[in-house]
Amino acid sequence: MFIVHHPRGEEPEHFDARSLRVSETSIAQRTIDRKWGEIEQGVRDEDLECLRVVAWIIKKRSQPSLRFGDFDPLIGDLYMRLDKDEVVHWIEGAMAIAAASSDSSADDIRAALSGLPNAALDREHAERMIEEMLADPKGEPDPQSSSETGDETPTSTSSGAGTSSSSGASSDTEPQMSTT
Prior knowledge:
Structural class: mainly alpha
Order of helices and strands: EEHHHEHHHHH
Strand order of the largest sheet: 2-1-3
Largest sheet: 3 strands, antiparallel
Distance between the termini: 15 Å
Strand content: 5-15%
Radius of gyration: 17 Å
Number of strands: 3
Mean pLDDT: 81
Helix content: 40-55%
Shape: elongated
């Protein structure tokens, strides 16, 4: 999952929340006096303090002297987005639920996933995966597109440079979709 810091009139910064090290999670816990599990869930729920502390820690990698109090974005400038693997996971989950119900159609699944592209960092990828996975009765993406499920999105630079690894630890808890 990515935290996006997008001040008006500036290029957005993307922070891969899965890229945190254990030592950095300890800093996050001490900074906002919460356990890591609460912070992780807070990021999914778009809790601004949780988004802020994770973005700040990642931003500190390139700006070591940045203090938490000095990183104080506007509330509308900080939000969470799903990475490509998470998008595929959401679609697979919706399809599994639909498969358990014999009266669910592809249109029902599409309707249930209508907010997913807005919650994705890469909207076009989410739309394409929904269509491809619904077209394939096994629910697997086209092999041509499977390379796209890896994260190729910017991680923590405003210039758009850098990539994230899809080998980060994942959680068993589903991220919450946002309508913002």
